[in-house]
Amino acid sequence: MIPSRVRNPVKRFFADERGTSAIEYGLIAAGIFVAITAIVFEFGGTLTSNYQAVNDSIK
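Given the sequence above, the corresponding structure tokens read:
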């Protein structure tokens, strides 16, 4: 059996939700970062070649 002096702080720790929103915002920011990174790597080469084609046609 776990003594109450150990059990009560543990229960309070798991019931505390003050940092929950900060963690959620961090996860949302990480998801947005991953999405932007994937888009840049996926379309970066295409955009570079299109830019080069436009640049060559202007000259």
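The mean pLDDT is 83. Try to locate this feature in the token string yourself.
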